[in-house]
Amino acid sequence: MPALVEEGRAKVNLTLRVVGRRVDGFHDIESVVAFADCADRLTLAPGPALALTMAGPLADACGDTSDNLVLKAAHLLGERVADLKVGHFTLEKVLPVAAGIGGGSADAAAALRLLARLNELSIDDKRIMEVALATGADVPVCVASHACDMTGVGESLLPLNLPKMPCVLVNPRVPVATRDVFSALALRRGELLIGVTDVVMQAPSWPEAGRTINDWIDALARGTNDLERPAARIEPVISDVLAALRATSGVRLVRMSGSGATCFAIFESDADAQAAGEKLRSQHPGWWVHAGTLS
Predict the structure, then answer these.
(1) Can 138 be counted among the known catalytic residues?
(2) Full domain range(s) for residue 276
(3) What pTM was computed for the model?
(4) For the domain that residue 175 is a member of, what is the CATH number?
(5) Which one from 138, 149, 226, 272 is the annotated catalytic residue?
């Protein structure tokens, strides 16, 4: 059987509200999630043994392959599906690691899609989603890689009709541990953040299908990322990235994604996004910069 290929697209949190910390220690959130047109590439060559090889420009940043979420997802699925067919994965890593854009989660989701194809499982098979959530909170949303409103700890997904939006993603090549950022919120178990009654009591409302980019930008601008300030305290360079994005021409919205350090900007046009990307690459050659679209 020929090798199978899937992409692990970068996940971008356009908004991220931390509702509070649950008694089990996990944090409930509400987040509008979109996906960028940049991605890792995962190939599966069917075979008798499960294995993973790293490749690509950022392969060295991934650490020991035994800790990779691709293998974790495959092992967990094997515990639920008898005689699961597996093989040799090759991951071409181009997305920065520990960057707030779900690179590892997107890779794990791509692995689940590949294994579902190889084993003729529906992507809606409840075992797939059970494994996704057990692998990591961001993995379920990455399985479909479709814009949605994500709530709970990542298990509740409401699809959204997000138009394509010109964007620039910037990562200063400084890893930020999600655990450290949530710890900086200093929430006790069972504690809610002040001012989230509206999030707790009613479902958020976002523009319906057919609404314009301007409608979406206006709605997103009323949101926030509650992790932006604690992340910037941990890694002050995040503030530099946000300032650099705000200084570009044609920018409409600037915010950090996830727990950082990647930040994004939404622009009025593709031309503005491309020009901003070129400017940022020239001014900050050490930063990872991608100019493209979100959807």
Answers:
(1) yes
(2) 165-294
(3) 0.94
(4) 3.30.70.890
(5) 138
